[in-house]
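Final report, section 2: Outcomes. Of the targets proposed, Peptide methionine sulfoxide reductase MsrA is the one most frequently requested by collaborating groups, and we therefore present its record in full.
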Amino acid sequence: MKNIITLFVLTLLFSCQNVAQNNKKTDAVKNAQPVAVPMENGLDKAYFASGCFWCVEAVYESIKGVKEVINGYSGGHTNNPTYDASNTGRTGHAEAVEVIYDPKIVSFDILVDAYFASQNPTQVNGQGPDRGSQYRSIIFYQNESQKEVILKKKEALAEKLNATIAAEVYPFQKFWVAEDYHQNYERLHPNNSYIRNVSIPRLKRFQAKFPKELLKDAH
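The predicted structure is given below as tokens.
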């Protein structure tokens, strides 16, 4: 019995140390200076986390001016995260997307509007059936101007809903591209049960309430 109690205390102590260590690493990520991604061929990049990246990819690819969406991981404190590793919640990363867009057609402001319009903004640590820190909502900013846009829209939404908005606001550091089989998932696997029952309904809910003139004719 004494050995069991000792083991329990040691396990609890080790667990608390891990949590404290991870909190320090997360704080370091949140307090870092943002990294600005240079424009390429007239295209900008923006980064968002909002539950399963399969769903978010489909949402952003339906918006005019968005040229490509890449699934990956961001917001964590480890290098080269994988799907399996991020799913443990220990890497600090969330499933995220890199949105490559033409700023002459669609603005960062509109991409942030789409972000909030495509999710349950009050759900903490997940979206729909996807739960856990790896599915938490994060908007990444690359400069103070973007940060100001995000915070103003978040504050306005909180006032409108009279509720706390779950999305965290992080300085962008690095985006890690996910495994090949995660890319273009909704388009390549339309009959997948998750896509049919979660991803497509989420996309349709977004399209139903977002301004039609901002959406592509077909997705």
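Confidence is low (pLDDT under 50) at residues 6-21.
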